[in-house]
C-alpha cells in the first residue's frame, strides 16, 4: 500500500510545518538501514517513527527498537508493528536528555532516524555528550551544512552516504535530503589536541563565561594528558597571554566565532608540545 493510501485510510493529513515528510521508496529505506550494520545485539533509537516504515525494517534486524512518535494519530498504525519495538507516543526530548537511559530501560547503542528538522539541533547537542556505536540519519541539506561548518564539526566527522531526492518523500519537501553517518571524532585527550578539547569543553559548558570554561579546560587537560597540576592563576596567565579579546572571554559562547578563535590560539602550537611546564611557569 502506498504511503498516501495509508494516510488516507487512517484519515491523517501530514503537516509539513511539523516536519512530517514520509519516505515512500522501499529501496531507499532498506539502503538506509543497511548502513547501520544491525544485529540482534543492537538496541536502536528512532525519533519520528511516523508510519513505521523505517521502524519495521530496523526491527527485522535489531534485537530491540526504541521508537518515539509525538503525533498520536499514528498509534493505530505503529501498534501493529513487531513486538521487539518499544513504542513511546511522546516527545523524545526527556529521553535523549538522559543519555538514552530511563528507569528499567536498556540504553540504545545505535541511532537510525529520519530526523525531524525541529529536533535535529537539540538532539545533536545531546549526542556530543554520549558514546555510541553508530548514528545513521536522514537530514535536510541545511542540517548537513550546519554539521559541516558549525560547532558540531568539533565533535563529529560527517560521512555523506547518499542523497535522497525530494521526490522520495510524501508530501514533497522543498529540498533534497542526505543520509549521513555521524562518526565521533577521536578523544582529544588521547590525541593531545588542546584546541579541539577546549572547543568541546566550551560548548559543553555553554552556560558559563568563556574565560571560566577555558580556565577549567586548561586545568583538566594538563592533568589528564601530562599529569600536571595547573593552578587557576597559571591558567588565567595562559588565557591572558593567548591574545583572545575580552569581548569573547567575558561572555557566554553565544557567537560561534569564539570556537574558531580559541582553536586558532591553542591548536597546533607550543601548547601541544611535550614540555607544557615551560609554557605555564
TrEMBL record:
InterPro entries: KsgA/Erm, rRNA_Ade_Mease_Trfase_CS, rRNA_Ade_methylase_Trfase_N, SAM-dependent_MTases_sf
GO CC list: cytosol
Residues that, per the record, bind S-adenosyl-L-methionine: 23, 48, 69, 114
Family: Belongs to the class I-like SAM-binding methyltransferase superfamily. rRNA adenine N(6)-methyltransferase family.
Domain Ribosomal RNA adenine methylase transferase N-terminal intervals: 28-186
The keyword Cell wall biogenesis/degradation appears for this protein: no
Pfam family, one: RrnaAD
Transferase recorded as keyword: yes
GO molecular function: RNA binding; rRNA (adenine-N6,N6-)-dimethyltransferase activity
PROSITE patterns in the record: RRNA_A_DIMETH, SAM_RNA_A_N6_MT
Protein name stated in the entry: Ribosomal RNA adenine methylase transferase N-terminal domain-containing protein
Keywords (A to Z) from UniProt: Methyltransferase, RNA-binding, S-adenosyl-L-methionine, Transferase
